[in-house]
């Protein structure tokens, strides 16, 4: 993409899966569309639309509804705020620890046989048990449910051809089975939410006010219950914690998505099931690439691993071995919280800067947009103007924006890739977590989790999950890619990295005497 920027300038077009996209890079051009001024969020790919039911005529899209988006976002911020994260931490740790135990048992603790496959399975379990908190009863076969979810995820960005045997056809069939399974499991939630909806006078903002009031205290109580229950885990996933009779309910992500669909007028059993699928997709897809990209980069850097280990030893000396929210997340998450793991935080941010977990969301213009088109190398030349018509799709492609960061990039367009993004040829200079520890070198552009009113409400949960896995792994092991050039040999780099089969084996070398 940097090559296109050099050749065509700050605005250019490309075709992706048959959809014409205008890639914008200038902050002034991006500001309006990404603040929903003259634009709205949209995913233009037909396979995604069919599976998520957000195509025209199937408007299951709370983010595109301006009246519902604000209250819906407040619900999510309540569910995933400091108290919510405290409640979810024991669940996340139980799921991650169960997977670590499986990795150790599978190869005698010597390796992760396929990093991509294993973090994919881990991400789906985290989405089921931590993000959406899907209440799977004992009678539901977890492995079969997970397989259907994986099949569903595989079809989201597949070629829009639903021929028998295609990824989209398999995903559509899997979705119907998932909806059929989820509907009855969510019946109690749907009825409870309907009662609260009526009690709030069928006004979404009033419903959100009622549900979020006192949720922090309820979440703290739930955290204690979940922590006590996590020791009983034996199935490879955390079990839902039950609240004492009469206790205030902690606001959950499940509450947020079901209520959001109700705000749009959809209160059926199917709508509740599809809403939870939305939450699972949002969590699983982002988490699996965040985990894979971060672990791959860290495994390529013995120096970074030693720094993380040293910081963890200091954390254990100061706070004990427990990995709490206060230890894992920076002060912005909780008032007065100390930055106990600034280097670990810098590592995750640097990995997400260099290899973002998402390529960036798109916007559909609801009004014409005027942008500059002068070529990047045309210094001093007059800028021309382009009018992008209403209805067109515009895109802030995150990796390209990170290339153009004014703190990291010197403006040189003679190179194929700026040094701070060139992990292939300049790994030590590109993957440098220390840049986040100083105000002078801290990157200005960081759009992995969006921005403004569409900044991902689950970003702190994603950070917590990635840091948990890194801390638990690197307290015991050093990681080493068997094929050090795994990323360079990947079969797919865009929009997500998919490694070549057989190249993603990670060796686990014990560092515990």
TrEMBL record:
<keyword id="KW-0560">Oxidoreductase</keyword>
<dbReference type="Pfam" id="PF00067">
    <property type="entry name" value="p450"/>
</dbReference>
<protein>
    <recommendedName>
        <fullName>Cytochrome P450</fullName>
    </recommendedName>
</protein>
<dbReference type="GO" id="GO:0020037">
    <property type="term" value="F:heme binding"/>
</dbReference>
<dbReference type="InterPro" id="IPR017972">
    <property type="entry name" value="Cyt_P450_CS"/>
</dbReference>
<keyword id="KW-0408">Iron</keyword>
<keyword id="KW-0479">Metal-binding</keyword>
<dbReference type="InterPro" id="IPR036396">
    <property type="entry name" value="Cyt_P450_sf"/>
</dbReference>
<dbReference type="GO" id="GO:0004497">
    <property type="term" value="F:monooxygenase activity"/>
</dbReference>
<dbReference type="GO" id="GO:0016705">
    <property type="term" value="F:oxidoreductase activity, acting on paired donors, with incorporation or reduction of molecular oxygen"/>
</dbReference>
<dbReference type="GO" id="GO:0005506">
    <property type="term" value="F:iron ion binding"/>
</dbReference>
<dbReference type="InterPro" id="IPR002401">
    <property type="entry name" value="Cyt_P450_E_grp-I"/>
</dbReference>
<keyword id="KW-0503">Monooxygenase</keyword>
<keyword id="KW-0349">Heme</keyword>
<dbReference type="GO" id="GO:0016125">
    <property type="term" value="P:sterol metabolic process"/>
</dbReference>
<dbReference type="InterPro" id="IPR001128">
    <property type="entry name" value="Cyt_P450"/>
</dbReference>
<feature type="binding site" description="axial binding residue">
    <location>
        <position position="456"/>
    </location>
    <ligand>
        <name>heme</name>
    </ligand>
</feature>
<comment type="similarity">
    <text>Belongs to the cytochrome P450 family.</text>
</comment>
